[in-house]
Amino acid sequence: MVVLLVAGIGVVVCALWVIVLRDEYAEAEEFPDSVEHAHLRRVAETRVSALCPGAIRLAERERANGVASYENLASAREFWRRFAAASASVERDPIAALRELRGLPDLLEEALRGADQEADMAKDVPRREDGR
Question: Pick from 52, 60, 26: which is nearest to 105 by CA?
């Protein structure tokens, strides 16, 4: 009986030890404090911030244009997907954010051109008398 009690206490102590060690490693990965990580995070934050004015223009044009063609919609969706992924991973994984940010300026310009084309096509469509 005593042997089972000692074995049970040993199992509980080992389980707690594993949980504590796993928790320490998770915190270390979650909040790296290296200078390189901080530098990469600042670089990624700067690049995301540089894209924000263009992203705002794209959102305004999308809202004004309404429904877009599939071709123009695809580039805008890809931009928004990658922009969101980069923005979300800046703090946690700046290297992944920088990877996502690589082609985003070109993709943003393509999406803006597509939104402009949609606006031009929308101007050419005659409206009915009731404004629709």
Answer: 52
What is the number of other CB atoms lying within 10 angstroms of the CB of residue 15?
10
In angstroms, the CA 69 to CA 111 distance is: 12
The pTM for the full model equals 0.63
Q: What angle do CA 28, 37, 93 make, to 5 degrees?
A: 75
- The predicted-structure confidence for 16-46, as pLDDT tens digits, reads as follows 667 766 665 555 455 556 889 899 999 999 9
Which pair of structure tokens corresponds to residue 96? Answer: 């992944």
Task: State whether residue 1 is helix, strand or coil.
Answer: coil
Which comes out higher in pLDDT, residue 22 or 124?
Answer: 22
